[in-house]
Amino acid sequence: MNIHEKYISRCISLGKNGQPSTYPNPSVGCVLVHNNRIIGEGYTSAYGGAHAEVNAIASVKNKALLKEATLYSTLEPCSHFGKTPPCADLIITNNIPKVVIGILDPHEKVAGRGIRKLKDAGREVTTGILEKECRAHHNRFLTFHEKKRPYILLKWAETIDGFIAPAKEKRNAQPEPFWITSPPSRQRVHQWRSEEQAILVGTTTVLEDNPKLDIRHWSGKNPVRLVLDRSLKINGNYHVLDRTIPTIIFTEEIDSSKYIEGIDYELIDFSTNIAQQLCNHFHKRNILSVFVEGGKRTIETFIEANLWDEARVFTGTSHFKRGTTAPKLSGKLVKQEYIYTDTINTFVND
Does Plastid appear among the keywords (predicted)? Predict the structure, then answer.
């Protein structure tokens, strides 16, 4: 690892501290180095707050060192006025002579303009450092701007014999949820929910399990609840309609008198391209990531449309023998881990 890679690696570590509070902005990490010593560092504040470069420069005690320093950042500094002034201008104003960047910003308002502004001001700019790692760190932001849709994560738990739910007669005899995984695994799911902007489930999952779709076993901000309900079968007795968390219902029902006040509704055509329609709505609403938790049909809708990026699959130790079989996908296994008695396999869509 060379010196540039060393400091960009530090930037990536810093950037993780801002997730997911920065969404829909990227969580950038920034380091300022003088004579091979870090003199300042920062990461993006929660949405609407200061960018990473602003926080890093503000942290430098001796500002006179900036005119001899190198600024490292995971992402190209912005060049436009948004909720904050352009970071490229701040770098120029503080006479920072060298800038090292992981990847370019694909946002239409940036897209190389930040680098061009820096170079036009006489700054030495180096790009493409730890590009693969920076792309992985910013995968949700990049997917949103490059593919015009959110980063889609699929999650399910299956028994050792390949079922995600028991047979109907078994469920009818015991209406309470059948847990496939251990309590530590369920806590991990709540951690994952806290890291994403939204969580999606279908009608059957709500009617059979009555999930809260919150992060009560973790800390942070609850994701926006997204629910497919074609004919509004879900009534106000279910947790997803309790109005404690922002919720969007996707439906075909045009009679707004059936809508519940405080719940958002979106009309889609359930007869075709459901996954793509949903992605279009998510993009319109600036949702960078969606955690798809079920049920089987909802998950398979994204698999069949090839609109997924990552899948996290739990396998427990129980057997159902009969029931709803687990979804099938073709992806690259990139990680396997164990929590108590459960196995988690992580796949990416390659």
Answer: no
Binding-site members are 51, 78, 87, 157, 179, 193, 205, 209, 213, 216, 293
pLDDT class for 80, splitting at 50, 70, 90?
low
Q: How far apart are the first and last CA of the chain?
A: 27
List residues forming the annotated binding site for substrate.
Answer: 193, 213, 216, 293
Closest CA to 292 of 178, 184, 198, 186: 198
Q: Are residues 158 and 125 in the same domain?
A: no
Report whether 19 contacts 26 (CB < 8 A).
Answer: no
Q: How far apart are CA 334 and CA 7, in angstroms?
A: 26
Alpha carbons 295 and 298: distance in angstroms, whole number = 5
For 53, the domain range is 3-143
pTM of the predicted model as reported, rounded to 2 decimal places = 0.90
Residue at a domain's end among 94, 117, 143: 143
- Please name every residue paired with 310 in a beta bridge, in sequence order, or none if there are none: 153, 348
Listed residue (345, 342, 346, 347) closest to 179, CA to CA? 342
Please pick, among 53, 158, 196, 310, the residue that the annotation labels catalytic: 53
The residue from 101, 121, 143 where one domain ends is 143
Report how far residue 300's alpha carbon sits from residue 154's, in angstroms, rounded to the nearest whole number.
9
- Residues 293 and 337 placed together within one structural domain of the fold: yes
With a cut of 80, say whether residue 68 has pLDDT above it: yes
